[in-house]
């Protein structure tokens, strides 16, 4: 009798363990993959809007194929090591203030004209770009010979 109870108990334990194992492993699972960390960006800023932006990348480190038949299989060609690229630091690189051109010369006192002297200022274009202040020179005096005879 004790042997019979022991066999029944062992059978019950085996059935219980198999049932728990079956519940722990999903029967239907979609295609899953794990990505590694993103790399550093290839540049701190973009040279111009005409250039491609800097890029960062990451790669697939593990793939878990779909199981059970209700989910689509993993895409064809998907494999460990597949690389994904993404833009980063897409802003245009700053432009130094000293790189901006000067305007034409203007009279200091317009109604006096050339005798009052003249000056020119930095020509700051309306750009979507930061400006690095590398100079405090926003205007400068013009030579008398560069002053126009009259202002239009």
From TrEMBL:
Gene3D superfamilies: Thrombospondin type-1 (TSP1) repeat (2.20.100.10). InterPro entries: TSP1_rpt, TSP1_rpt_sf. Keywords: Signal. This is Secreted protein. Residues 1-24 form the signal peptide.
């Amino acid at each position: 009798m004790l042997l019979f109870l022991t066999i029944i108990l062992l059978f019950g334990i085996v059935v219980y363990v198999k049932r728990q194992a079956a519940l722990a492993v999903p029967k239907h699972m979609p295609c899953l993959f794990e990505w590694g960390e993103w790399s550093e960006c290839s540049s701190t800023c973009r040279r111009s809007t005409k250039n491609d932006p800097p890029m960062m990348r990451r790669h697939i480190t593990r793939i878990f194929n779909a199981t059970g038949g209700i989910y689509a299989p993993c895409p064809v060609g998907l494999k460990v090591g597949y690389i994904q690229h993404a833009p980063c630091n897409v802003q245009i690189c700053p432009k130094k203030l000293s790189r901006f051109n000067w305007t034409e010369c203007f009279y200091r006192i317009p109604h006096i004209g050339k005798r009052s002297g003249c000056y020119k200022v930095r020509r700051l274009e309306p750009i979507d770009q930061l400006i690095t202040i590398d100079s405090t020179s926003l205007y400068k005096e013009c030579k008398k010979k560069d002053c126009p005879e009259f202002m239009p």
